[in-house]
Amino acid sequence: MRLTPAIMQVSDWNDYQAFLAIARSGHIGRAGAAMGVDPTTVGRRLRRLEARLGVTLFEQTRLGQVLTEAGEAMLANVEAMERSAARIAASAAGGNGPSGLLRVSVSEAFGSCLVAQNLQGFADRYPQLSIDIVANSGFLSPSKREADVAVTLSRPKAGPVVAGKLADYALQLYGSRKSVERDGLPQDHRALLSRHRLVGYIPDMLYAPELNYLDELQEGLAPSLRSSSILAQHRMIASGAGIGILPCFLGEGDPDLIRLLPEWRLTRSFWLVTHKDTRQLAKIRVFREWLKELVEENRNRLNPPGR
After folding, report:
1. pLDDT single digits (tens) 55-67
2. Angle 161-164-168 (CA atoms, 0-180°, nearest 5)?
3. Distance CA 199, CA 230 (A)
4. What is the pTM of this model?
5. Whole-number percent of the chain with pLDDT over 90
6. Which CATH number fits domain 168-268: 2.60.40.10, 3.40.50.450, 3.30.420.40, 3.40.190.10?
7. Which CATH class for the 5-93 domain?
8. Residue 4 and residue 11: Cα distance in Å, rounded?
9. DSSP string of 149-182?
């Protein structure tokens, strides 16, 4: 199906925004939450749009809405409309810079410890932007238009995206400083590992293989204190409940923690991912540049020198 500009012009832009929200979230309820309207309103706008165009845009599945062939064709056209609307809004804003919603998907630790802690300066610089920092287990996909920018743990292997390495970061084994002062620090790492409970991820809830750390420390290790949240793991380790592997940008900033095996270190990478069709939008471009500056300023925090 090919939609003509004439068809586009006679329709209500609110209906197209509802269509975009459903296409990106895959669910009418989530689309309503993203738009700040009731799901019934989103459904009504979709039905009105489908009736006006005489096509079915989504198939209803057990998990939500899936684009039909007509819907896929529609998506490309409506995203072009959205980009035009964004350029018009940016032009109208004049010297105030880009406007609208910017959604950024990041890992929990990176989003909390680096992005969120430094976001004030960016927000002050671009007051017309509303910013979503989605920092939970799993990543939203720029390829599926779920996010404008994603910072992932691996480079995407496919999809209409542009990806580049943002930074390498180090991880080390940490324990509670009080526990070490009380119990001492064995020189042999096997004795150290056998003496303490291990803190780590829940194996069947790992959202990225790069988070499977323990086998690289010693084959066959399994945590007995587990969480899908790296921030929860951090608190368990700092409280003395066990020892575990943390990103250095998280562990080094906590005075309650100490590196247990200073000579042992893991390295992982962050990748900056944007959709190839939207990466030059002003809001995405300025955030991408700000994020690269932030990483450069925190290079030693991401990869601290040995000691």
Report:
1. 999 999 988 899 9
2. 140
3. 10
4. 0.69
5. 48
6. 3.40.190.10
7. mainly alpha
8. 12
9. EEEESS--SSSSEEEEEEEEEEEEEEEEHHHHHH
